[in-house]
Amino acid sequence: MTQEQQFLVPLDQYLKVGLHIGTKFRTKYMEQFIYKIRPDGLAVLNVQKIDERINVATKFLSQYAPQDIIIACRRDNGHKAVELFAKLTNIHVIKGRYPPGALTNSNLDTFTETKLLFVVDPWPDKNIVLDAVKVGIPIIALCDTNNESNFLDLVVPCNNKGKKSLALLFYILTKEYLKNRGIIEKDSDLKEKPEDFDDEE
Q1: What gap in Å lies between CA 27 and CA 148, rounded to an integer?
Q2: Bridge partners, residue 73, by sequence
Q3: DSSP single-letter state for residue 199
Q4: Number of H helices, E strands in the chain
């Protein structure tokens, strides 16, 4: 079995959407995932490590029923991807601004009990991350080279800003979650393609 066959999607799919292209800023924690720095100063993430972490994240997610997971995405560029992910998996998504106290204050109408939080970017999504920490919920986060890892239980290194990158990522999360939960048997059972998770048609 070649290295490429072991990836969750073919290597060229990762490269085509720039899932491995980071930023010019690098935090100490994220250095372990960086493969090289390009001449223009952009950090390039290690695709093998990205794939390994996505795999770990999907296995972790799959241990939870849809109603026990919340996905948070403050950034507009991930809204289409998380919407389709939510529709196909029945996992609850909070798009845009997080209603303060939704995880911590049971007197609020917006209160939601959850067992696992998944955030698209821990910086704009920092308020829900802090609330999840208060109630002791594990947190999975997509992290670019400029992200800090404070309070996160599992980091998935990736370009978490590009629409096409997030579209591919949520396509993979969808198919792996549905396979691991026994809802579909193989990749081809999922009718949706990565481009369906992207609104830049």
Answers
A1: 6
A2: 95
A3: S
A4: 6, 7
What percentage of the chain reaches a pLDDT higher than 90? Answer: 95
Q: What's the gap between Cα 41 and its chain centre?
A: 25
Q: Check residue 76 and give its pLDDT.
A: 93
Count how many residues are written for the chain.
201
Percentage of the chain exceeding pLDDT 70:
97
Residues 6+ apart with CB under 8 A from 199: 79, 80, 163
| Residue boundaries of the structural domains of the chain | 3-184
- The order of strands in the sheet holding 154-157 is 92-95, 69-73, 116-119, 139-143, 154-157
Assess contact for 151 and 172: CB atoms under 8 A. no
| CATH among 3.40.50.10490, 3.65.10.10, 3.30.420.40, 3.50.50.100 for 3-184 | 3.40.50.10490
Report pLDDT digits (tens) over 82-108.
Answer: 999 999 999 999 999 999 999 999 999
Rounded Cα distance between 147 and 166, Å, is 16
